[in-house]
Amino acid sequence: MPRREGSKNEDYENKRNKLLETLFQKMVQKKFREFPSFRNVSELLSVSPPTLQHYFEDRKGLMTALIQYIEKKGEGYLEKVKLPQGNGKESIFKLLQFITSGFQEGPVGTIHQFGLAHGMGEKELGPTYLTHLFEPLLNAVEKRIEFHQRNHEIIKCEPRVAALFLLSPLFLVLLHQNKLGGHKVRPLNIEDYLKEHSDIFWKAFGKE
Q1: Is tRNA processing found in the keyword set (predicted)?
Q2: pTM of the entire structure?
């Protein structure tokens, strides 16, 4: 039976995801330094521009699809962010260490760098980055904070406020040191920073 005009092949999503996975791996290898042109992406993936257009329409559509694909790949990472470890104070410090390791040893930092670089001031890609990358991370941090609130270890407050208080300075420090050359301009001992930041958070939000 011929396919109806405008309908998609049954394996459309499977082929689309394979292209996104290949692109993701190529971008990790290149540390997400820049996003190539639509034609260069087609060469990178060894497909024709019309084929790429069939799955993603244009460069912006491809970038949006990649960000959404990365969100799905990161679900396991976010589950670990949500999961409490030890008592409240220990859990917050271990959370900071875990996020930092993702930035320094894994692709997390380069992924957020990519999202920020292409999303800043962009009316479509900016909200896409927030919706599919930053907000899921923030929400996962909120879940861990909510657990410790229920255990009466963290004061009653808006979890999002506490999560932003915890995450925002860490983001700035990691971008400063690892992505903007801060380790050369003004080096910072990250482990010492994590301990102090954790202590400050606990003095503000912890129940002793």
Answers
A1: no
A2: 0.90
